[in-house]
Write a structure and sequence with these properties.
Number of helices: 15
Number of domains: 2
Order of helices and strands: HHHHHHHHHHHHHHH
Mean pLDDT: 85
Largest sheet: none
Shape: elongated
Low-confidence stretches: none
Length: about 350
């Protein structure tokens, strides 16, 4: 009884689905209704066909298949998915088809009304199985052949869709890789052109960001060479540390590029750290929103690496007091609504202080 009821519901869902997909999706408000109907009819087909597959497995409608029970259940589940996607896609491809994305024969099947005759090949034999114990025990060829042919076509459509999906994914990944490669090459050349066009009278900050260790070697070397071609480049770096908001650009340079007189940088670096601490305290106290403000723009991690590699070796150099001041600023009590905000810079500074105890 249940099997026949499910067949009726599946038939009604199929009729509604086939009628819906007989024309392209409309625009505007009608398009919303079309999408809702597509979800409703497709969901009904998915639900009732799934229940029918469960019913068939539970009642042994496919015990004639020479498989172990576990493998037979897996085959029923796989066959149900293949049936559902083959029928729904065959209906959708009648009105929605993008040439070149999938093999053309799927469109031919859709135009040949596969959404109509393919369910008949599968569901009519199932109706016979449900209503004839004799056919379940030993189905005759006139029952088995249409069913196996229908399921075979469903399997072919399913495998073709998988092949098309993998091919489309591979093509999309290749296109994205090519786009990123072209973009990187364009950016790379832009950097080289920018460095070549830099004149001695131009602000040094224009190219300092290209001297960091994470740029390509040719870009970095060209930028460093251009910086050092200016006679007063070291004094200019010290001025930027002392008096301007461009200190993070200097951090990028000194992270991996040695300076001839590191002792001249010790006090300016300490001063820039304290200035950063003061700004952080101010930002926390007056902040309207701390959610997206993590202080990465200060490039403190680059500075800490530069200190360890170059400036901590200067006799008498002591950066710990300034770093303690920076940590205290990061731990400034936050407004109540920002109590749960955690700054990513805090553990970086704490880690450095643990490794640099006096």
């Amino acid at each position: 009884m249940l099997g026949n009821i499910l067949l009726v519901f599946i038939t009604l869902a199929l009729i509604a689905f086939v009628q819906l997909t007989s024309s392209p999706a409309p625009g505007g408000d009608r398009g919303v209704g079309y999408a809702f109907a597509m979800i409703l009819y497709g969901g009904a087909l998915f639900l009732f066909s799934g229940l029918l597959a469960w019913y068939a497995g539970k009642n042994g409608l496919f015990n004639w298949a020479p498989l172990a029970p576990q493998n037979r259940n897996l085959l029923i589940f796989t066959g149900w998915l293949a049936f559902f996607f083959a029928v729904t896609l065959s209906g959708m491809f009648r009105s929605e088809w993008h040439p070149g994305e999938l093999p053309q024969f799927l469109k031919w099947l859709a135009d040949a009304q596969a959404a109509v005759w393919l369910p008949l090949l599968v569901l009519v034999p199932l109706a016979v199985f449900i209503n004839s114990e004799k056919q379940v025990a030993a189905p005759e060829l006139w029952v088995k052949i249409p069913f196996l042919a229908g399921m075979g076509i469903c399997a072919i459509i399913g495998l073709t869709m998988l092949f098309g999906w993998f091919r489309a994914s591979a093509r999309q990944n290749a296109e994205q890789a090519e786009y990123h490669q072209q973009r990187e090459q364009s950016q790379h050349q832009h950097h080289l052109d920018k460095i070549a066009a830099h004149q001695p009278e131009d602000p040094l900050v224009n190219i300092l960001s290209l001297t960091g260790r994470y740029h390509d070697a040719d870009v970095r070397n060209a930028a460093v060479e251009k910086v050092k071609s200016r006679p007063d480049w070291e004094a200019e770096l010290i001025r930027l540390l002392n008096d301007t908001e461009w200190q993070s650009y200097v951090y990028q340079f000194i992270d991996g590029n040695e300076v001839p007189h590191p002792e001249l940088f010790v006090e300016p670096i300490n001063r820039s750290i304290r200035r950063t601490a003061a700004e952080i305290r101010s930002r926390i106290t007056d902040a309207n929103d701390l959610q997206d403000w993590h202080f990465e723009h200060f490039s403190i991690e680059r500075l800490l690496r530069a200190i360890d590699e170059q400036f901590s070796k200067v006799p008498g150099a002591d950066f710990r007091p300034a770093m303690l001041e920076l940590l205290a600023a990061l731990k400034t009590p936050k407004p109540e609504r920002f109590k749960k905000v955690e700054f990513t810079l805090t553990p970086i500074v704490e880690y450095w202080l643990r490794g640099n105890k006096k």
